Amino acid sequence: MNSEPLSEIKVWDGWIRFFHWALVLLFGFQIYSGKTGGNIMQWHMFAGYAILTLVLFRVAWGFAGSTHARFASFVAGPMETVRFALRLFSRAPAAVVGHNPLGAWMVIALLATLALQAGTGLFANDDIATEGPLAGFVPRSVSDRLTSIHRWNAYVLIALSAAHIAAIVFHGVVKKENLVAAMFTGIKRVPPEIARLAAPARFASAWRALALLALAAAAVALLLRLPL
Question: How far is 79 from 142, CA to CA, in rounded Å?
Answer without folding.
Answer: 40
